[in-house]
Design goal:
With 296 residues, the protein is mostly beta strands. Helices cover 11% and strands 38% of the residues. The strands form 6 sheets. Strands 7, 9, 10, 11, 12 and 13 form a 6-stranded antiparallel sheet that branches. A 5-stranded mixed β-barrel has the order 16-17-18-19-20. Strand 17 and strand 18 form a beta hairpin.
């Protein structure tokens, strides 16, 4: 059969088709449509490949005669049969439910603006987070494209996409007064408020634990949200602080005070001065005004 004849055989059948659920059309599938094939042809005989979802595979008289001849099967002159996958309608509700499942946000509001197609093979509709084409700065009024898939016939995947706008009730931390750079944020300087935002936006501080006690890198204006990039870990040691240093050498351990020559945060290596000898040495910050020296 030529390519063009095969093509037209797949689209020129107007009646109902037999539903398939396999990669190949088998003898048992043909027997369901045409009883003449139900006795002589083995049920596991491979007739041909299944059509793609949404298309039809049509067998007309001449091809059916060719298929039946090796088994002594006589085909009626007007015999014809077609096969197709079972399809499901892709409704807005199905898309919303699949997206909410990925977001793990039952209360998310999802406005479906467009979908790639109205039907897909019957199966599990999924919109994995990896298919979302959006930046982490996306707002709730910005349309985004989300690529999804329908899992059918075991692990086969049928690609779909949806154009959506998504919002949800979120929390954010807001400064209640001007916070100067280089200062640790105190609890009375911030508050939490609820507002509408894109649920996967991740640049804004969402709770007080992310903010209180950390140091501001720039001025934080009154009434403005606090961004994670605005904050850094506080200094555990300031220059001039008296630091409790633990020195370990093999099994021996010694504790002594030292004066910090440089400031630093947890895990930083800083310079300290032994106040008795004046010797400068380096140690790793282990906590508030605590440091560790380990000799190999």
């Amino acid at each position: 059969m030529s390519v063009w004849l095969l093509f037209f055989s797949m689209i020129t059948h107007s009646g109902p088709c037999e539903i398939i659920a396999n990669d190949r059309i088998l003898g048992e599938d043909l027997a369901k449509a045409l009883p003449d094939f139900s006795h002589q042809m083995p049920g596991d005989a491979v007739i041909g490949y299944s059509p793609t979802p949404g298309a039809r595979r049509v067998y007309k008289t001449l091809e059916l005669q060719r298929i039946g001849a090796p088994y002594g099967i006589t085909v009626q002159p007007d015999a014809e049969v077609c096969f197709e996958w079972s399809l499901q309608a892709l409704t807005d509700d199905l898309i919303r439910a699949a997206i909410r499942e990925s977001l793990q946000s039952p209360g998310a509001r999802i406005d479906v603006l467009a979908i790639s197609r109205n039907q897909a093979p019957a199966g599990k509709l999924s919109f994995p987070i990896s298919g979302l084409l959006a930046s982490t700065l996306t707002g709730p009024d910005t349309p985004v494209t989300w690529r999804g898939e329908v899992i059918y016939h075991g692990s086969r995947k049928f690609s779909v996409w949806a154009r959506v706008k998504i919002s949800a009730s979120m929390t954010r931390v807001v400064a209640t007064q001007l916070i100067l750079p280089g200062k640790n944020v105190e609890a009375n300087q911030v508050r939490v408020e609820t507002y509408e935002d894109f649920p996967l936006r991740n640049d804004i501080a969402r709770n007080l634990e992310e903010v209180v006690g950390r140091m501001s890198r720039r001025p934080l204006g009154t009434g403005l949200p606090v961004f994670r990039s605005d904050l850094i870990e506080p200094l555990e040691v300031q220059r001039g602080d008296l630091v409790d240093v633990t020195a370990i050498s093999g099994a021996a351990q010694l504790r002594m005070p030292a004066v910090a020559e440089t400031a630093g945060r947890q895990g930083d290596i800083i310079s300290l001065k032994n106040p008795r000898t004046g010797k400068i040495f380096r140690a790793r910050i282990e906590g508030k005004d605590k440091a560790l020296v380990r000799e190999q």
